[in-house]
Amino acid sequence: MALGHSAPNLVKSRIATTMGKARILMEAMPYIQAFRGKTVVIKYGGSAMVDDRLRHSFAGDVTLLSLVGIRPVVVHGGGPQINDSLRNSGIESQWVDGLRVSDARTVKVVQSVLAGEVNPDIVRLLIGHEARAAGITGIDGGLFGARQKDPRLGFVGEVARVDPEIIFGMFDHGLVPVIAPLARGIDDGQVYNVNADTAAGVLASALKAEKLVYLTDVEGLYRSVDDDESPIQKISLTDAKELLMSGSISGGMLPKLESCVAAMEAGVRRTHILDGRVQHALLLEIFTPEGIGTMVRQDGDD
Fold first, then answer.
1. DSSP E strand stretches across the chain
2. Contacts (Cβ under 8 Å, ≥6 apart) of 232
3. Residue 275: beta bridge partners?
4. What are the 10-residue block averages of pLDDT along the chain, 302 residues in total?
5. Beta strands in 138-180 (DSSP E)
6. What is residue 61's predicted lDDT score, i.e. its pLDDT?
């Protein structure tokens, strides 16, 4: 009688691995069924835009969402690329309350970088993963109409009007919209630079999106800006508003949470603040019960 362990059975090992993959697909199925035909607006920025491994992970995630019948919309920033271009042009970046001061020279650089470099680069990336993507700016089709946010900021706009008709037309043609956050001035016809977080929020509201997702460079929302050991996995809309009023949220997280709250008050079902440094963060959040990052949900939702 043979004693000890038998030799590994490679066939059984492959079967076990395959069964594990099948279980993952089965776990995702109810989420695919629930969100098919629904719109998900994704603010794309941070490390996920510049790390090549994360760029391809993001593109694969968006492509899969589209293939299973979900309607992703990508709104992107471009801070690092804009900083580099301004530096090369001899223009010093200035900031007020976390927003870039955009005089006439600066806004021309911003428009050139967002519309001429970053947007087509993201479209190429998505098409390379077999997504049917097309890029536009918020000026195209009158998508975003803006007014000056603060005279101190120059051509930085507050979105005052959204006409999502161009996005619906792209949906009708099976396209994934990729949007640069620029807007046309309602009063003066000028080009305005719009905070990408805010643009994603107002667009999600106008599209009656099921979800609004922010990819960030932190684990999610924290109860205190000084305590990175206090991540919040789930929070209700009411509690999120109280957190904003407490004054404990600042920096780049402030416009994200403000936009989450505004979008949900306008009818968006759930918003998510995710760690974009994690590969496949989008899929993990949307297709698994555990999720990754912070989910803000309507009061009374499970």
1. 39-44, 71-76, 95-96, 99-100, 133-137, 144-148, 157-162, 176-180, 182-185, 191-193, 211-216, 221-222, 231-232, 234-236, 270-275, 294-297
2. 220, 221, 222, 223, 294
3. 216
4. 50 51 76 92 90 94 95 94 93 83 94 96 97 98 96 95 97 97 96 94 95 88 66 88 82 83 90 90 85 84 72
5. 144-148, 157-162, 176-180
6. 95
**pTM of this prediction?**
0.88
Burial (CB count within 10 angstroms: exposed 0-12, middle 13-18, buried 19+), residue 32? middle
Q: Tokens standing for 154?
A: 């120059």
Tokens describing residue 92: 């010093």
Query: What local confidence, expressed as pLDDT, does residue 104 receive?
Result: 94
Residue with tokens 């922010």: 214
* CA 140 distance to own-chain centroid: 20
pLDDT at 18: 56
> What is the amino acid identity at position 5?
H
pLDDT of residue 302: 67
Please say whether the dihedral angle defined by the alpha carbons of residues 77, 73, 272 and 58, taken in this order, is positive or negative.
negative
Strand partners, 200: none
Residue 172 forms beta bridges with which residues? none
Question: 180 with 195: CB under 8 angstroms?
Answer: no
| Cβ atoms within 10 Å of 246's Cβ, excluding its own | 10
Task: Give the residue among 86, 246, 64, 185 at the shortest CA–CA distance from 56.
Answer: 64
pLDDT for 232 equals 85
pLDDT of residue 4: 47
Structural domains in the chain, CATH included, are 36-83+104-137+195-297 (3.40.1160.10)
- Count of other CB atoms within 10 angstroms of residue 76: 24
Phi-psi region of 69 (alpha: psi -120 to 50; beta: other; left: phi over 0): left
